[in-house]
TrEMBL record:
Domain of life according to the entry: Bacteria
Species for this entry: Niabella pedocola
Protein name (database record): 5'(3')-deoxyribonucleotidase
Pfam families from the UniProt entry: NT5C
Similarity section: Belongs to the 5'(3')-deoxyribonucleotidase family.
Length: 171
């Protein structure tokens, strides 16, 4: 069975919606997705570090449309692991675990890898929204489209726009 590595933030959890929500509440600024294209999270939002260190930020993030159903299917056909960086923002460790338990309860604790660097991760396929995580990976790589990566050529990575495309590619 092939090992599939799936990122959380920006792939399963809609953190861009969280950033927009927090910025609207904090500063009264409403940004549409088009205004974010080509900008990193830090370039797009004024108080990124404050928001990600606010209790509830990760716990209350919306689920990406279609992800639960497709992940349920992927879990039947792959050796599936959720791998998410969680050490940089200490509050995120517990909140990410709780979020995954709430929305993806069909996954067991052994499938959840909350780590620092993803450079130690190996497998056959990786689905992530950041080049920094995909570029070092030796297997097949799927780049999940997010505003911060939209202006970049995917290069050796296969771009997927949403969970319907993930389903077409992997199932």
């Amino acid at each position: 069975m092939k090992r599939l590595i799936v990122d959380m933030d920006g792939v399963l959890a809609d953190v861009y919606s969280q950033f927009r929500k927090y910025e609207q509440l904090d500063l009264g600024i409403t940004q549409d997705e088009a205004s974010l294209i080509g900008k990193t999270e830090r370039e797009a939002f004024q108080h990124v570090r404050t928001y990600v260190n606010t209790p509830g930020f990760f716990l209350e993030a919306p689920v990406m449309p279609g992800s639960i159903e497709v992940m349920r299917q992927l879990n039947q056909q792959y050796d599936l692991y959720i791998v998410s960086s969680a050490m940089e923002f200490p509050l995120s460790l517990y909140e990410k675990y709780q979020w995954l338990q709430q929305h993806f309860s069909f996954l067991i604790w052994e499938q959840l890898v909350l780590c620092g660097s993803k450079k130690i991760v190996y497998g056959d396929i990786m689905l992530d929204d950041h080049f920094k995580n995909l570029d070092h990976f030796d297997g097949k790589t799927l780049l999940f489209s997010q505003p911060h990566n939209m202006k970049r050529d995917p290069g050796k990575h296969q771009r997927v726009a949403n969970w319907q495309e993930v389903q077409l590619v992997l199932l």
